[in-house]
Each structure stands twice: as structure tokens, then as C-alpha cells.
Amino acid sequence: MKTNFLLIVLVTALFSPKFSSAQDAECARTLSLFSQSAKIKDYKSAEPYYNELIEGCVDFRLATYQYGERMFKAFIKEAEKNKNTADQKKYAEALIENYKLRLANFPDKTAKGETYADIAQVKFDNNLGSKASQYDAFEKAWKMDKESFNSPKALYSYFNVLIDLQGKGEKDLQEVFSKYDELIKKVEQEEIHRAEEAEPLIKKQEAGEKLSSGEERTLKNSEIYLRNYSAIKSSINTLLGDLADCDNLIPLYSKDFEQNKENVTWLRNAAGRLSAKECTKDPLFFKLVEALHQKEPSAKSALYLGQLAEKDGKYSKALEYYNQSAELEENPIDKARVYNKIANNYKRKGSYSTARSFYKKALNQQPSLGSAYLQIADMYAKSANDCGNNIFYKRAVYWLAADYARRAGRVDPSIKSSADAAVSSYMGRAPQKPDIFQEPDIDEGSTINIGCWIGESLRVPSL
């Protein structure tokens, strides 16, 4: 009886407000000591405090796991530098445990897809477990919360492991293609998001307006992400390499055509892959498109019929199909591609105004489509002699062309070198500083109007 009474007293004391406050005070003291050392990167001194926190203050503050992440990453880097594989593995496993504890104790402040992708990345970077288990870790993150699975590095590593497994015969080629489509779609969606953030700020800069510190930070981060996503997309395409060339695709889909010719999903995916890789000259492509259009007339089947018509030199018929495709298409990226094809057709025919309207429609759907800006710039440059009342205004068109080319490189870093070369060329043909001084009523910073089909105004740059 006495023992039971003492137990009740002890439990009551442990859960009393006074005890809780004392415990919180001790947790706060330990966290303060941990964060002070972590802030100055004295992680050896910080580690014991971290261990205390995860023993007795596991759900006290999110900062425990934020600083813990930095600490273990520093330990891993040092161990790797010293080629100490035992320590590298130990700290990699500790970092994974740090992520798991954060997920368990602060679920509302932790993005699941992002964090599970971080765990998978740690396994991949530090060679923990088999390739199959690494792939399963990425797959878990992807299936659980692909919305927050945004790391360019993790997206690349995810596909890299899959390619390794396919090379060993543990994954089939169709699974590689399906995952490629998912990951490229994700990358392109993120590119659109970042380009949409950047576009109004770029225009504000071009108009000579000063950005706030917050806007400058947003623009800088957007452009960093755009560069990273561009690099990752290129790397993923390199990994896919020869696996997705026509020599592999055509036998693969030819072999399965008869058993899948009634399967709309299979037809759609096969035709899409052949279209994307320009395998449209093979008779198989026509068979796929014809079967698909009969089963499910859609934006995609209209697009493929347009490609076939264009291949046969039937450009008017191709435009008809492309317009049908654009009207039916709901996916912004795919709609942008169709608008871009239509614009290219009109540009080829010299219908620049109509071409520009379709390039701009494409950009409305996919603001990261830098090639559309480059095409508009090219049309402006080719129209310079027709769009001005005198030599100065004719040459001023090149400033406008340079603005569009410059914007192309900022929203799509994959074409930055081409865009920079175009900017340099256009600026070399545009009016120079002495030309501005000789023109009455025009100074650097003045706004001038460009006539003819272009119909835009521009700000005279400071040279």
C-alpha cells in the first residue's frame, strides 16, 4: 500500500506544471548551448548537447533538428575528406535518424516528400544499403508526397539508381521510360513555377525600376533553381541516352503492338515516346496514331496527325491539326509545345505577327520556354529595316530584340550561351552612345515606340 502511494506521488510530481516548467528550462538551456556551438560551427562541442536534447527534449524545438542536420552534414563531409568510411557511415545513419525524429516530432513543420527524399539522398551519397533499397527509399518519398519532392539533386539521383538497376536487369525498359516521363514532368512544372516568380521581376528590372531586397532575393533564388533544374534535366536526358533512341523504341513497341492495339493508355504512351524522340518516319508511328485516333480522338492524336502531315509537306493540314490539338489540350506544358509548333509554322511562312501571338500563347502556358523569346527576338531583328522611319529607329529595333534574347537566357539557362550570343549580336547592330546624342529629344532612359507589326515601346538603355 505504501509503495503504491509513493508511486502515485512520484507520477503526480513528474507531470505537475512545476516539473514541466523545470524540464522546459533545462531543455532551453541545453538547446541554447547546442545552438551557440552550432552557429560558430564548433560541432565537436555541440554534439554532446544534441545527444542530450534527443534523449530528454525530443519534441522541444524544431531548431534541434535544423542545427543537427547541419552538424551531421559537416561530420560526413569531414569523414569523407579523411577517407574515414566508418565515421562517414556512422554520421550518415545519425543524419537519417535526425530526419526521422523531426518527422515524428514536428510533422506539421516537416514536408514528408522533401524529408524522405533527403533520407534517400543520404543513403545514395554514402552508399548505405543496396541499390534496390536506395531506389525504394526514393520511391517512398515520391509516392508519399511528390509535391514537396523538389530537390534537383534528389530527382537526378532517383533516376540514376533506376538506370543502374535496369542495367543489371532488375528493372525493365518500360519502367525506365515511365519514370523518366514522371520526373521530367516534375522538373518542367518546377521550371514553370520558378519562371513565373522571376518573370514580373525581370520585367520590372528591364523597366528601370528598383527591386526591393525581398524581390532581389526571390529573383536570385528563382534563377538559381532555374539553372539547377536545367542542368538536372540535361543530366537525366544524358542518363537515358541511347536507351530511348529509335533503334530501341521501335522494336520494343512493334513487338507489343498487336497485343496492345486496343489499349488506349499503351497507345498514348508509345505514340508520345516516338513523337518526343522524332521517331515519326517509321511506319509504326502511323499505325500507333491511327489506332489511337480511332479509339480516342484527342489533343495528342491531333498533334501526331499534325506531325505526320508536316512530315509529308502538308503544312496547311498540319496547322489545322495543331490548332485542334491546342484547343483540346489541358496540360499547360503540352499546350505550350503545340502553340510553339504552330508559331514555328507561321514564322517559317513569314507571318511574323501571327507567329508572335502563338509564341506568347506558349509562354503564357510555360513561362520557362526561353526558345519562344529567342524566336520573337529573331523575328524582330529580321524586321528592323521595315520598322522605323529613319536609321536610328530601324536600328533601335535591335535593342528590343536584345531584351527578348536576354530574357530567354534568364528563364531557360539551358540556352543561355545561345541567348548571350544573340544579345551581343543585336547590341552590336543597335544604336551606340554617339547615335543617341545625335538624335533630338532622345536620351538614355527615354521611352520610344517601335512601329509596323511589332507595335511595342522600349526604354533606351544606358550605354
The mean pLDDT is 89
Strand runs, count: 2
Global shape: flat
Give the tally of structural domains.
3
**Level of helix content?**
over 70%
**Strand portion:** under 5%
Reported by name, the CATH topology of the largest domain is Serine Threonine Protein Phosphatase 5, Tetratricopeptide repeat
Q: What is the C-alpha radius of gyration, as a whole number of Å?
A: 29 Å
Give me the strand/helix succession. Answer: HHHHHHHHHHHHHHHHHHHHHEE
CATH class of the largest domain: Mainly Alpha
Q: What is the CATH architecture assignment of the largest domain?
A: Alpha Horseshoe
Sheet with the most strands, sense and barrel status:
2 strands, antiparallel
| Low-pLDDT regions | 1-19
The N- and C-terminal alpha carbons lie at a distance of 93 Å
Explain this structure to me?
With 463 residues, the protein is an all-alpha fold. The chain has three domains: 2-202 and 214-240, Serine Threonine Protein Phosphatase 5, Tetratricopeptide repeat (Alpha Horseshoe), CATH 1.25.40; 252-330, Serine Threonine Protein Phosphatase 5, Tetratricopeptide repeat; 359-463, Serine Threonine Protein Phosphatase 5, Tetratricopeptide repeat (Alpha Horseshoe). Helices cover 76% and strands 2% of the residues. The protein has 21 helices and two strands. It has helices at 2-14, 17-39, 43-56, 63-81, 85-105, 112-125, 131-145, 152-167, 173-206, 213-240, 246-260, 264-276, 283-295, 299-311, 315-328, 332-348, 352-365, 370-382, 391-411, 416-429, 433-438; strands at 447-450, 456-459. Strands 1-2 form a two-stranded antiparallel sheet. A hairpin with a 5-residue loop joins strand 1 (447-450) and strand 2. Helix 12 (264-276) crosses helix 14. The chain is flat.
